[in-house]
Write a structure and sequence with these properties.
Number of helices of chain B: 8
Protein name (chain A): ABC transporter permease subunit
Distance between the termini of chain B: 19 Å
Shape of chain B: globular
Helix content of chain B: 25-40%
Helix content of chain A: over 70%
Order of helices and strands of chain A: HHHHHHHHHHHHH
GO molecular function (chain A): ABC-type transporter activity
Largest sheet of chain A: none
Radius of gyration of chain A: 20 Å
Number of strands of chain B: 9
Strand content of chain A: under 5%
Oligomer: heterodimer
Shape of chain A: globular
Strand content of chain B: 25-35%
Largest sheet of chain B: 6 strands, mixed
Largest interface: A-B, 26 and 32 residues
Radius of gyration of chain B: 17 Å
Number of strands of chain A: 0
Order of helices and strands of chain B: EEEHEHEHHHHEHEHEE
Number of helices of chain A: 13
Keywords (chain A): Membrane, Transmembrane, Transmembrane helix
Distance between the termini of chain A: 23 Å
Chain lengths: ~280, ~210
């Protein structure tokens, strides 16, 4: 058990030195700074202005880039170490597989979640500095949603990383999964509805299973409680579940999904050849 | 008996890499394992280290199963891979990993490094993969020798060492406790001839020759 924290600590140290971490931090921190420089928070679009407007844009960007950033940087963690024989050496020491796997996941979670979370805090501090009011509830719920989104994609990345042996295949498959999920937040869902070939219930289920769509609905319901800006599926879900249950689902479902995927990855790590 | 391999087979994508292998390693055995590329030497060592799930047969190390009881097995084994892996940890972090996971004292690693003519202090904050090939190999050897083990496994350990480094390495091996066993995978028997008391020859996934010398 003590080795979980050792592996996590070393993974964090390694990540903090790597280029991907700098790019990742600069992208999210830089985006927030860019929003202020370009005066996004002063503009008014569809009734949103100030800190809400800025957080809304941050969410739109997060929906697109956070999942792929997490997938690309993490999917190589086990498969890359396996390919380069780092795993062979590191696991020749008496470290339990559960300590190694969960330690890696813990370390990686902190390195992918913290920059986004800090960028959010940076935005809030800037917003307050400019004289806005602090939307405590919104900041808290949005942080929780970010936590859930990071967790589900980290779980998915670890699952893919242990399942496939080559880094190229791991990267390729994570890209396909990301594109498919992204397509199903709008274009594909609308296409299916327009074709009218599928049962509406199935389309709703598809939307509810997609963690990107769930995050999007949960996050935007914070700004637009009627969900009028994002279409009929979201509106139907809000109408059926109610605002509170929808938010609980948006937070809990990705965490459960991420935990299941991470656990399946762990089973594959334990049951398959390590090299 | 330290290592017992009984009727072990392993198949990779239809190819039988280990074919009903039987092998025992007793305390004090100094083994040179030889054979052409693809003979199954590295696969056998990896199976002993618990990296592979074998298709049939039994492997036990000190009575423990390498897959199910890997921590108990690896406590008593030191391993040096064929090529130093591109570990991105700094030397400081790598030593911390070794220290905490295996209970090896840092002072002992520094001592063994000095004996290998490797100045660890000078490079301590550098990432491991940025060291030269020879320096990496020397550090792996120093770590392996610092760990109190019943069995040392070396997969072509001197491939990256200059002649002086090799000489130093063989000198240190001569000082290893007599009860400790060593297993060298090598293509250069002439270099370690004086250090071994048993030769094993593998081919096509089988042990084809096993003689005491």
């Amino acid at each position: 058990m003590k080795n979980i924290f050792l592996v996590a600590y070393l993974d964090i140290k390694e990540s903090l030195r790597s280029k991907w971490f700098y790019v990742y931090s600069v992208v999210f921190g830089g985006l927030m700074a860019l929003f202020f420089i370009t005066g996004v928070s002063d503009s008014v679009v569809m009734g949103f202005t100030g800190l809400s407007r800025m957080l809304l844009i941050f969410i739109q960007v997060t929906i697109i880039i956070l999942p792929i950033f997490i997938l690309i940087t993490t999917v190589k963690s086990i498969s890359g170490d396996r390919e380069s024989n780092v795993l062979e050496y590191m696991l020749s020491f008496p470290v339990a597989l559960k300590d190694y796997y969960w330690g890696k996941m813990l370390g990686r979670f902190l390195t992918v979640f913290m920059p986004v979370f800090l960028a959010l805090l940076l935005g809030v501090v800037f917003g307050l500095f400019k004289g806005g009011e602090l939307p405590w509830r919104m900041v808290f719920l949005y942080s929780t949603l970010l936590f859930s989104l990071s967790f589900v994609f980290l779980g998915l990345a670890f699952f893919l990383s242990t399942l496939v042996k080559s880094t190229d295949i791991a990267l390729g498959s994570s890209f396909v999964v990301w594109i498919a999920m992204l397509a199903f937040i709008d274009i594909a869902l609308m296409g299916l509805m327009l074709q009218n070939r599928m049962n509406d219930g199935l389309i709703i289920v598809l939307a509810m299973l997609n963690p990107i769509e769930v995050f999007r609905i949960g996050a935007i319901s914070l700004f637009d409680p009627e969900l009028t800006v994002i279409g009929p599926v979201a509106y139907y879900l809000l109408d059926t579940l109610g605002a509170t249950l929808l938010m609980v689902y948006a937070i809990i479902y990705p965490i459960i999904m991420g935990a299941i995927l991470a656990y399946l990855g762990y089973i594959a790590f334990r049951k398959k050849d390590l090299l | 008996m330290l290592v017992k391999v009984q009727k072990v087979s392993k198949v990779f994508m239809g190819s039988r890499v280990l074919d009903n292998v039987d092998l025992t390693v007793e305390r004090g055995d100094r083994i040179a394992m030889m054979g052409p590329n693809g003979a199954g030497k590295t696969t056998l060592v990896r199976a002993i280290l618990g990296f592979y799930h074998i298709d049939s047969g039994v492997i036990s190390v000190n009575g423990y199963d390498p897959v199910k009881q890997r921590v108990d097995v690896l406590k008593n084994i030191s391993f040096i891979p064929q090529l130093p892996p591109p570990v991105k940890l700094s030397l400081e972090e790598l030593l911390l990993y070794v220290e905490r996971s295996s209970g090896v004292s840092r002072a002992k690693i520094f001592e063994e490094s000095n004996r290998m003519d490797l100045d660890l202090k000078k490079h301590i904050s550098k990432p491991f993969f940025k060291l030269s090939g020879g320096m990496k190999q020397k550090l792996l050897i120093a770590i392996a020798l610092s760990k109190k083990s019943d069995l040392l496994i070396f997969d072509e350990p001197t491939a990256n060492l200059d002649p002086k480094g090799r000489e130093k390495f063989y000198e240190l091996l001569g000082e290893i406790d007599v009860s400790c066993s060593t297993l060298f995978i090598t293509h250069r028997l002439d270099e370690i001839e004086g250090l071994v008391n048993r030769k094993i020859y593998m081919d096509l996934g089988k042990v084809v020759e096993d003689e005491k010398v």
